[in-house]
Amino acid sequence: MGLSCEGCDARERLMADENKAFIKERIVGREMTRGRAMKYVLTALLCGIVFGAASFATLFFAGVYIGKPVLQRMLQADAAAAEATVTETPAAEAGVPHTGSAEGMTEVPGSESGITPGNEPGGALESAGAAGASESEEETAESESAADVSPQETEDRQPESAAEQPEESQSGARISKQEIIEIVGLEMDQRSFDEKDVEKLSGTVSRMAEDWQKYLVCIESVSSGKTWFDDIVENKSEYSGVIVRVTEEEADILTVYGAVSRAEELRIVLADGSSYQGSLLQSSRTDGLAMIRIASDEEQGIFLPEGLEAVPMSEELPEKGDMLMCLGAPLGRVGSLDMGCVGYVRDKVPYIDRNLQLISSVMSIHPEKGSFAFSTDGRLAGMALENISQEEGEDCGCIVSISCLEDIIEKLTGGEKMALTGISGVAVSRETADGKAPEGLYITAVQTDSPAYNAGVRRGDILLSLNGKSISGDQTLKELLGEISAGDEVRLIIRRSLSESDYREIEYELKTGSR
């Protein structure tokens, strides 16, 4: 028996040694080939994608589950309050109790209003038309039935309706914070969302993007170059543009300056897929904008498609919390889309010869390809300009409000160049000056190699007038420059600080440049 146990122990030790050798040779010492490494990497990526998608779906459904019932319940509460107020108003104005409907009104002894079924507005007209005639049997029966109603029966019915209506009014119009919390909690427990609700929300966004895509075009900027072997090759880059003006024979397209800076040929592809040759109307390197025109040609049989529309432009500045949809090339590729919430709006931001309104939104913006922001009502709210510095941080950028670019768009559409001095500044009004500084435009920066820079205007100077017209506001410089053309001679009067209380007026004559 003892020998048998010793044999078992020896056999187990031998198997253990063989297992160790197998693990050492076949697993630990196994070579890592490229195929085996790719297998491990793909397995890890697949696990990450599966678990990431599951986490995203959980967070998305939780947000939809919480948000939508709250809004629906609040809207129902407001509707109930409005309905209760409308129902209560006739009885309050008449000064008599009622049973909740006009048809149920009865005569109350001692009532000052005297409203009965016979002398309601309709009954008054009927009795006036029957003056001098005998009463019909129907009218007699109605009056007898009204008289048979005892005061006790009327009083019995009044408290019921009077008790119901104030309760409804109070629950709708005077709802407390605690009641709102209870309502939200109840709806969260009762309401469930499924895939159809998610599809409905995403479908709304898709329809909006599809409807607004008709205003956008793809611009193919074509240029030629040579290889190392002197072979001529065609280089093509795509940009996005938006239609801002349409007539029967031509259409004007607003885009970024990069689309035309090196282009030898411009091909415009509309939303319906039709293609046209474009011609440059005008460009502004300072603002980073350009205007391209496509036109019909009867001789060549080229006609613009019917139903071509210009984009409607928003006249209001978006507010914090508003949703914007960015079309064009927000992700760096033409035809892409992104959405975001307005996080911050900055007004009167100094820029060259004007002030801008900047909209900061948490969404991807690539201004070099053309990105256009639309409000939820389908109007163009702004566009991203490459010359305007973007916000720091990933997926966050600045959009310039379209309202402060309208004068530039008008000039570009007319093929005109805008005058340029190169001055940036903020307004100094009488209130802000407080008697210590003159009223005018405090110059915060002067563009290098601009007409004002070359003439000697410095940062810290105060611009008092241009061509004899005083600068009294932050928009006045832009308006005055809009009245003159590029290349015109202008006269500037500035006041320079020599000390805290000593200012000296200096006059400069310069020739304006072009934006």
Can you walk me through this structure?
This protein has a six-stranded antiparallel beta barrel with strand order 1-2-3-6-5-4. The chain contains eleven helices and 20 strands. The chain has four domains: 48-97 and 153-193, no CATH class; 213-295, Trypsin-like serine proteases (Thrombin, subunit H); 323-413, Thrombin, subunit H (Beta Barrel), CATH 2.40.10; 419-514, Pdz3 Domain. It is an alpha+beta fold and 515 residues long. It has helices at 2-28, 34-94, 121-129, 137-147, 151-173, 177-190, 195-212, 406-413, 430-433, 451-455, 476-482, and strands at 216-226, 232-246, 250-256, 265-269, 275-284, 289-295, 323-328, 336-351, 354-361, 371-375, 380-383, 397-401, 419-420, 423-428, 440-446, 462-466, 469-470, 489-497, 503-511, 513-514. 36% of the residues lie in helices and 27% in strands.
Keywords:
515 residues; alpha+beta; Thrombin, subunit H; 4 domains; six-stranded antiparallel beta barrel; extended
CATH architecture of the largest domain: Roll
What is the level 1 CATH name of the largest domain?
Answer: Mainly Beta
Into which percentage range does the β-strand content fall? 25-35%
Question: What can be said about the biggest beta sheet?
Answer: 6 strands, antiparallel, barrel
CATH superfamily of the largest domain: PDZ domain
Mean pLDDT: 75
Summarize the structure.
With 515 residues, the protein is of the alpha+beta class. Helices cover 36% and strands 27% of the residues. A hairpin with a 4-residue loop joins strand 10 (371-375) and strand 11.
